[in-house]
Amino acid sequence: MASKQHSPSVLMLPWLAHGHMSPFLELAKRLAERNFHVYLCSTPINLKPIRKTLPSGQIFPSIQLIDIHLPSSPELPPHFHTTKDLPPHLMSDLKTAFEMAKPDFCNILTTLKPNLVIYDFLQPWAPEVAREENIDAVLFLTCSASTCAFLNHFCENPVLEYPFPAFEFPEMERQKIIGFMIFKVKPAKQTKSAKPKPHFLPLPVQAFTNLPDIQSQASQTN
């Protein structure tokens, strides 16, 4: 395998859930097999089990685990910087803390200078930070095609009935999905007059068709 200096690099930022970490890790392995150097970025508590199964320098030496540090608070200590065992009422706090980690994410990009950022659907701020650093960013969706179709229909036509009954979700599941996409996040600086603001997360579907070009460009610049 080529050295890190001659390999295009990718920084991956999944949502803070093991159900999202797993597919990102599998994608990281596939990219590593294709001579990409991969930085898998998450909170220390989220990376802890991966560090046990992916020892440095073994099997996939071109996958490097990078810690991103969220601001801690009495309500959200570091062991709650993951959805695992997170009390449901702290979910919005976790999302807020993740967004407040933008300065740390910016420092990571400035230091590592990856050729590409691959982000999850709950981080609309990630491509904005990447753009400021002149780094391309693409969205990696870990959900099924039917779920993506439903969500995109909801984004475009929220008041219209879903036109494909065979792929319609049960009402309880439908409300759960929609509730996950439209949520309320406390402002970073909470005041008595401040009200939680709704965050709407559109799903731009992007493909990885430009990865060969990125790989070629990186090889030419190194």
From TrEMBL:
Domain of life, per lineage: Eukaryota
A Pfam family reported for this protein in Swiss-Prot or TrEMBL: Glyco_transf_N
Gene Ontology BP terms: carbohydrate derivative metabolic process
Gene Ontology MF terms: UDP-glycosyltransferase activity
Ranges of residues in domain Glycosyltransferase N-terminal: 9-149
Similarity section: Belongs to the UDP-glycosyltransferase family.
Protein name: Glycosyltransferase N-terminal domain-containing protein
